[in-house]
Amino acid sequence: MRHAARPGSRRRCGHCFASRPCLERAARPQGGGGGGMLATGTESLLRQAREVGAEELGRFCARVSALLQAEDWGPDALDALRRLFLIVAATKYSRRLEPTCVALLQTTLCSPRCPERLQLLCAAVLREMAPSDSLSLSCDHAQSSRQLGLVASVLLAQGDPQQVRTVGQCVIKVLESRQPEGPSLTYLLPVVSKVTSLAPDALPEEQTKALSKRLGEWLRYASVQQGAAHASGGFFSTPRARQPGPVTEVDGTVATDFFTVLSTGQRFTEDQRLNVQAFSMLRAWLLQGGPARPGAADADDRSELEGSTVSVLSAASAASHLLPPAEWLREKALEYCQRLLEQSGRRALRKADSDLQKACLVEAVLVLDVLCRQDPSFLYRALPCVRALRTRLCGDTACVRALLPIAQFFLHHGEAAAVDADAVCQHLFTRIPSEHFHSPMLAFEFVQFCRDHLVLFGSNLDLLRTSFPNLFKFLAWSSPALTSGFVALLPVLVDAGTAVEMLHLLLDLPSLTAALDLQLRASQAASERPLWDVSVRAPGCLEALRDPQAQGLFQHLLRAKASGTVERLTPLHQLLQPLASCARVLQCAQAVPTLLRAFFAAVTQFASGALASQLALLLLERSDSLFQVEGYEADVHRVLSSQFPALCKLHPPLVVERAKELLEFVGSLGGPRSTGHMLTSVVWAVGEYLSVSWDRRCSAEQISRFFEALEALLFEVTQSRPSAALPKCPPQVITVLMTTLTKLASRSQDLIPRVSLLLSKMRTLAQSPAVGPVHGEDDLGAVRTRATELLNLLKMPSVAQFVLTPSVEVSQPRYHRDCNTALPLALDMVSRLLEREAGLLPG
């Protein structure tokens, strides 16, 4: 990628952007190192491809058409098609190509003389254009199964249901042919899988049965001999030297049983490739088939009979061609999966084979689960294998992903198999997140497992809820990928018993990320540690991790289950501060506001008054106790400030119940903290709900105490001069303070003279030239307008009380806030009359 265009240099030539040498290299396979350079160069090329205009694209289409028209299928045509694919694939909207170019792409795709690589690119370009009105392709144009597979992929991309059925019929006819020397079928099975996923009823029952029969044959009766080597034609070549040998197991021993995807060899035969493809589509095909024997009498009685010794012996002879095709396929699928489970216990000689073993374990257990759900008689034949597999994998950290489908199997069949599914789930939720939180693939699959099986958890739902601290470790470490999943999970995870503890942990999520990072840095036993931000050095944090005084806080933050207790983690925040600039911590901090909104949306659906009061108090306490990450406190305060009034609306008496805490919060809001979002929402809630109409316990003494605290706060924020340490107070804070003080005065008539004097001073202050340079004219105008409106209302105390403290019956529709009703017009008219005839009114 060293020839990629430098930033800022955008060369344009006769053949447009797509003719540059850098695109030629981008389209070619890359090997070796330089992954970072490749990623950077590719992003640059994609950006340039998106900037190609319609005129430039038209010129390039003319060049491509000329090459294809002349059947010049050499390197120039290959490179041009690569660049054309990059252009049409780089944008999320469809590119419009010249009709001549589209027609030539289709002709080239169906030409029997065209090289395979060019046909692959033609099909890729045509798929990117889907849906297209200028398509004239048909499966009848294909000259081989390879061409048929490419043409079918283009037609299926159009999304036309009738076209899907036509493609399915054509492909099935080819698959039904049994000529041993016929066309290769390996190109067609993926098409069948796609057809059944797009239109499950696309294939008639007879064709479905026929294909089920063939799938069973490919699974069970593939050749156990390796594919023959191509003859070199040399003088010393002999037939004996070219004889294929038997396939081997992953541990190098000669295979003594039938061929599977885990069998190894130098070369493979056609039926062995079909064996691998059949297994890859097996689960989807079984799911399309539905339950077995819908007309069977009693599934429970049959299951009990099939579990007996007689049933097991008779099942051994059931693998005959006399079985119906669907049952035949299920029998062969069971044998295949049992063989895979046996092969997975062998010690692989190569890492690639070891990785394949793990993937096959997951798929085999999932297929067994489908088989047992469709036909309960399979349960007693599959259960010993799955049970032995779980025992073997519980201590094997390398195969931890396979424990998820095993847990799914026991959730589905634990009761019928007399297996304690609780113990399986307990191990799953206790150990895996704590030990493998840094595995992104496992994290995604674990969260998806929880989402997909919420109905199956049943009594285990409490286990899921109490395990949220462990699940949040996945979220803290891989927050960008898992945020949407946890937004969907939060309504299930949170309940009245865990809401307070969960909110604390959500607010501490960035510090949890830092603690997990620190835990990995301190771990000397991890053989494959994940990468972290090497630019951050944290030797002091590592020493703090071993400090006995900090151990308790670390253990609380890294706990596996809900403890029901809350710890003040401010000392821990200070210890973890050097890690606050880590990229992973910053990403986690950006996800927290979204998670908090989802949390409160769920909690407000069931929260009682007591819980709402607890959460409101928690918001006050945690507003100044957050992990100091760049921009984190401001983002969280925006969410908390919007949720505090919602909690007060849910339980209005909490303002009276938490009067002491609210007064302490207002009294502590001096200096820079007096400009935040939380202050505005708290002051508004006090003015809205500190009233006898919401709580009979509200007293004049309480109103007076709040009035004095807010009056002192208003004086402080208006008299302080802005500086670097003390930013300018927003006009919203000032106007909300004035409105709340007026509301309180309307409920305690003795306070009206004080608030009138205060409002007059505020109006005079807003008109002062000395304040102009500090606050903008718009801000001062808002303050003057609000002060004038409130003064006019206070001239008629009864009207002020009605407007500022309406009864519950009047306040529910909120007529005074609806600009489409007559009340705002009436208030505006009264205000104008009061201004014009002020001398005639008392006071």
From TrEMBL:
Cellular component GO terms held in the UniProt record: AP-5 adaptor complex
Location of the AP-5 complex subunit zeta-1 C-terminal TPR domain: 486-833
Domain AP-5 complex subunit zeta-1 N-terminal TPR: start-end pairs: 37-315
Top-rank taxon: Eukaryota
Boundaries of every AP-5 complex subunit zeta-1 ARM repeats domain copy: 356-473
Gene3D superfamilies assigned: Leucine-rich Repeat Variant
Coiled-coil stretches: none
Protein name: Adaptor related protein complex 5 subunit zeta 1
Organism: Bos taurus
